[in-house]
Amino acid sequence: MSESEASTLLKEPKKSRKKIFFILSLILLLIISGYVYYQYYFVYSEGTRVGILYKFSRKGTFFKTYEGEMVLPGIKFKNQNAGVSSNMFTFSVEDEELAQDLMNKQGMELQLHYLNYNKALPWRGDTYVRKEGQYVVDKLILVKNESPNGYGL
Questions:
Q1: Mean pLDDT for each 10-residue chunk of the chain (153 residues)?
Q2: Residue spans of beta strands (DSSP E) within 14-149
């Protein structure tokens, strides 16, 4: 065996290790990217909710986001021993124009379209119930009743 053949054989394992390292790094990057996409950008569910817009505000320390609360029809039992409470829907709004529209419709009965993400991103708004993910309202479908409680709020 000549010297050139011996040096070629010694270089082969280094090339194959680099190739294996590159492939494993690429697979790891794809797994991490898939996880991040599924947790933070994948829309788990979407739908509509109808209720009275109870509270709407802009808040946040570093990321100012629009947050709202809607009282839904019906009641909810917290647990077997506790009493009854109102059924609240908490959500965030990303669209500035929609946020201004909702700000002017507090106290009205509305139908809103929402997207539900698995986890929250700080610039997208708050997460109120961790196990339910983050609700982001993207459309105002209709104003059902401008004065649902009879007080003309």
A1: 54 77 94 93 92 90 90 72 74 93 90 91 73 87 71 47
A2: 43-59, 65-77, 84-93, 109-117, 134-145
pLDDT in tens, 3-16: 555 555 455 667 78
pLDDT in tens, 92-115: 999 999 999 999 998 889 999 999
Place of tokens 């917290």: 78
Strands 65-77 and 84-93: antiparallel
Instruction: Report the alpha-carbon distance of residue 131 to residue 12 in Å, rounded.
Output: 51
Report d(CA 49, CA 70) in Å as an integer: 9
Bridge partner residues of 46 (DSSP): 115
Tokens of 104: 């002017």
Burial class (CB in 10 A: 0-12, 13-18, 19+), 8: exposed
Burial label for 40, CB within 10 Å (0-12, 13-18, 19+), is: middle
| Spatial CA neighbour of 126 closest among 61, 72, 70 | 61
